[in-house]
What does this fold into?
Amino acid sequence: MKPLINKAVAFAAIIIACAALVLFQSTAQGQIANGPTDAQIAGIVQAACQVEIGYAQLAMTKSQNKEVRDHAQQMIADHSALQRSMTDLNGRLNLTPADSDTGSTLRAQSEDVSAKLNALNGSAFDKAYIDVEVATHQAIIATVSTVLVPNAQNAELKNALQGASPVMRGHLEHARNLQSMLDGGSTSMAGIQTAM
It folds into this structure.
């Protein structure tokens, strides 16, 4: 019975992650009419980095799987570097990151996802964490290319967003490989990319 409970909790975490990511994407797309400002874009990037670092720190405390821990450590390193780079860019541009509905929603929903992930252990945690990583990176890539880059007014900010895309795609590919390793490639989040 216990494995069924873990699977049910893992499934609930995945469903919450899907809802969060769909809400994140739809909120970001809704800001196109107003066009998120460069300050809001900086705030959204900051929020996305904080979310990714938070998920990875949780994985470092809960996972015993070397590959999952290596992935989490890479997420901490890369998203911390992106945060530092954005902080430097914000300073050069005299840009103060501003909150937006997208950033607020992303942070709030990540708290729910983190709570669900925190309730899991062992392979159920590993699977759910990597499923969340795949969905999160799909949402980040889609949002950067369809919302943030088109609305960035400053060329240097736009170039920074575009420059981060190959790294995010690398994260997605690595997470997909781990997903395949952990679950033979099938995932209950397979439809998330088309929903975005």
